[in-house]
Amino acid sequence: QGFNQKVQEKLYQMWLDWRKKSSKESGDETSAEAEEMESLALFMACSITQQLQITCCKIMSAIQGLPSSLQDKVKQSLGTIEELHASFSAANSFQDLSSSVLSQSQRKLAVIQEYMEELLDYLKNNTPLSWLVGPFSPREEEE
């Protein structure tokens, strides 16, 4: 959610501009814009997967003590996100990515979303008391 809104808006505006120009003209300029758009989209994929990695690591540390099945799903999600990030980071263009990475990434992200929704459902019904009131510690009495 905290991903840079300006980058998303820039990509969308570039896509709109490219779409308008590609319908009116063709040539080297359109090709250069398409390459720029592809480069920006790849950059966004890297940035989003990196942010997902950071967030998933924070979730991992926060869910200690929850059922191991939930912890395993978050750990599995982190592994998948790390793989996707490594693939996007190593690529210079989408042609550098295997067709399996491109076709499976959407499915893998859908599974991760399902796991996170399961975790949220669990927390909604079983919020740990320490998350609500903080750690308990003895209080010194004043005399």
TrEMBL record:
InterPro entries found in the cross-reference section: Perilipin (IPR004279)
Coiled coil regions, renumbered to chain: none
The UniProt record lists the keyword Heme: no
GO BP of this protein: lipid storage; positive regulation of triglyceride storage
Ion transport listed as a keyword: no
Locations listed in the record: Lipid droplet
One Pfam family, short name: Perilipin
Record's keyword terms, sorted: Lipid droplet
Alphabetical list of Gene3D superfamilies matching this protein: Flagellar protein FliS (1.20.120.340)
One annotated Gene Ontology cellular component of this protein: lipid droplet
Family per similarity comment: Belongs to the perilipin family.
Full protein name: PLIN3 protein
Source organism: Pandion haliaetus (Osprey)
UniProt lineage: Eukaryota, Metazoa, Chordata, Craniata, Vertebrata
Gene: Plin3_3
